[in-house]
Specification:
four-stranded antiparallel β-sheet; alpha+beta; SecD_SecF_C_bact; Protein translocase subunit SecD; Gyrase A, domain 2; about 625 residues
Length: about 625
């Protein structure tokens, strides 16, 4: 019989609709503005007495609490509004010490029975939730220079162990140069070094006195160093952002040497910028002996005083070897950082200290900075960055015994400095300096305004389409409008299930989907009209309309889907958001136009002896 579905098709449609309804429901429960309190690292969760102090301080500040939830590793304070959230964050942050991370957040209010089904609302992007956006640029030249400095230090140690005398070590671009007393020493050094450092191209050169060996990194080695630098920086920045306690952060590569960092819900730009952009690292060096050659030493100043110390240029270990770092206080109440090293770092530290007991060892704090100046280029102002590095001694202590994998750093100025240093060491050091190219802040009120305007645009688009379909196709227009509502529910459910992020361009994709969803129905209904005009019966016209419009609908939607997939694969940020909603909308609209409306038509008019069709 024409226009009848088998039972399994009706059951399949009902199953899809039920799943779509369940997984779209969490979006009806908006997230609550919240303040999240979690231990900085390896510490204990907020105690009951501390929580009572927090609640009392919020009450004194006339900030009402919606609820308080204690988790395994955090405490969540739910509030009524975004303005209360920011005020509460300031109160709590000023009350607690640096052992706790206080971060603004959005807490789900989805009922427990939906959470048990793994149903959660769509993730909102930065433009809808508010927060900060940073565009960072990695200094690739500095990455190469830092690697050359490490290699030069290892080369000097190798030469000293083999008792080969050398003089100066110079680094220029991607080339390391060493001077030797004569050509025989140079050739012996070249043979020795080339075995351990195959990435260099070696060349002999004449020096003012003696012989010179020039070692230049190959192009392949430079590319590998730069690729490692940006990947390591990505990992480090993700670790730092996780330490901030931000929900749904975005840290991704953009182009050959840039990184995008988006922190939804964060409004304290200064604190986020200080942690994300910090380039601090540590070096552990021995103090130079009086008879150490001048070219092997470096004079550095203490950070807290004008006095200086003569240190060895060779580095025992850097902050890269730190596996864990926590802040605490010594027996005199001064801040300190407790350090745990990885296996390699512990071995190197033990080897250096066991043979130098009684000698001083310095902890050097290194920070890469820039002086930005504006110059005119081709009649337009352009910012030029002059990078420089600050090195200062944190502490200089006598080695009492051989050190292993655990020890402590003292001599820090404040608990805040100790907390930030431990955070940076835990998250890992940057493989190359990074600079802020762009900084943008979106307030929570603006984000809510974007949501309201986006919802309004969807409502207006939906009402216009509904009105057009009712006026044009009457009863069949009503069927198309019901399918349109189903399509919207399925798009929202799919985005929620996939964990896709909804952005303003994504809302634009949903609005476009509404038009495309009825476009297929327009093709079908117009085809049915044509078949009726040729003299076919009502049932034959309905059957022919759906069958003959099928190919056109599939072709049109597949080509649009192909474009959406290309946009997703090569686009970034907003373009991806648009492509995701557009792709999902195409798939759901084909399902609703070809199956849902056909099922509704079959149930209402299928198989009935109708003489006239209201279309």
């Amino acid at each position: 019989m024409l226009n009848r579905y088998p039972l399994w098709k009706y059951l399949l449609i009902l199953l899809v609709l039920a799943v779509g309804l369940v997984y779209s429901l969490p979006n009806l429960f908006p997230a609550d503005p919240a303040v999240q309190i979690s231990p900085a690292s390896g510490g204990e969760n907020l105690s009951e007495s501390q929580l009572e102090r927090v609640q009392s301080a919020l009450a004194d500040a006339d900030i009402p609490l919606k609820s308080t939830e204690r988790g395994a590793n955090s405490v969540l304070l739910r509030l009524d509004s975004a303005s209360d959230q920011m005020r509460a964050r300031g109160v709590v942050d000023g009350l607690l010490d640096d052992d706790h991370v206080v971060a603004v957040n959005l807490a789900e209010s989805t009922p427990s029975w939906l959470r048990d089904l793994a149903a959660s609302p769509m993730t909102l992007g930065l433009d809808l939730r508010g927060g900060v956006h940073f565009l960072l640029e990695v200094d690739m030249d500095a990455a190469v220079t830092q690697r050359l400095e490490v290699n030069a230090s290892a080369m000097r140690e190798t030469l000293r162990s083999e008792r080969i005398r050398y003089r100066n070590t110079e680094i220029d671009g991607r080339t390391v140069s060493m001077d030797f007393m004569n050509a025989e020493d140079r050739d012996e050094a070249k043979s020795l070094i080339s075995r351990d450092f195959p990435d260099f191209q070696y060349a002999d050169a004449e020096a003012d006195r003696g012989a010179r060996l020039s070692m230049t990194l190959s192009d392949q080695a430079v590319d590998e160093i730069q690729d490692y630098a940006i990947n390591q920086n990505l990992t480090t920045l993700r670790n730092r952002v996780n330490e901030l306690g931000v929900a749904e952060p975005l840290v991704q590569r953009q182009g050959p040497n840039r990184i995008v960092v988006e922190l939804p819900g964060v409004q304290d730009t200064a604190a986020a910028k200080r942690v994300v952009g910090a380039t601090a690292n540590l070096e552990f060096r021995l103090e130079a002996r009086p008879d150490t050659p001048e070219q092997e030493t470096e004079t550095l100043q203490f950070r807290s005083s004008p006095r200086t110390a003569e240190l060895m240029r060779d580095v025992i270990i850097t902050g890269d070897s730190v596996s864990s770092a926590t802040r605490s206080f010594d027996e005199n109440g001064r801040p300190q950082v407790n350090i745990d090293l990885d296996g390699t770092g512990g071995t190197l530290m033990n080897r250096a200290t066991r043979s130098n007991i009684g000698r001083n060892m310095a902890v050097v704090f290194i920070e890469h900075k820039t002086n930005d100046r504006t110059v005119m280029k081709d009649g337009k102002p352009e910012v030029v960055r002059d990078p420089y590095t600050e090195r200062g001694i944190i502490s200089l202590a006598t080695i009492q015994s051989a050190l292993g994998n655990s020890f402590r750093i003292t001599g820090l100025d404040s608990p805040t400095e100790a907390a930030e240093l431990s955070l940076l060491l835990r998250s890992g050091s940057l493989a190359a300096p990074i600079y802020f190219v762009q900084e943008r802040t979106i307030g929570p009120s603006l984000g809510q305004d974007n949501i309201d305007r986006g919802i309004l645009s969807v409502q207006i688009g939906l009402l216009l389409v509904v009105a057009f379909m009712l006026l044009r196709y009457k009863a069949f227009g009503l069927i198309a409008n019901v399918a349109l509502g189903v399509n919207l529910v399925l798009v929202i459910a799919a985005m929620s299930m996939l964990g896709a992020t909804l952005t303003l361009p994504g809302i634009a994709g949903i609005v476009l989907t509404l038009g495309m969803a009825v476009d297929a129905n327009v093709l079908i209904f117009e085809r049915i009209r044509e078949e009726l005009r040729t003299g076919l019966s009502v049932q034959q016209a309905i059957h022919a309309g759906y069958e003959r419009a099928f190919t056109s609908i599939v072709d049109a939607n597949l080509t649009t889907l192909l474009v959406a997939l290309i946009l997703f694969s090569i686009g970034t940020g907003p373009v991806k958001g648009f492509a995701v909603t557009l792709s999902l909308g195409i798939l759901t609209s084909m399902f609703t136009a070809l199956m849902v409306t056909r099922a509704m038509v079959n149930l209402t008019v299928g198989g009935k002896p109708l003489k006239k069709l209201w279309i």
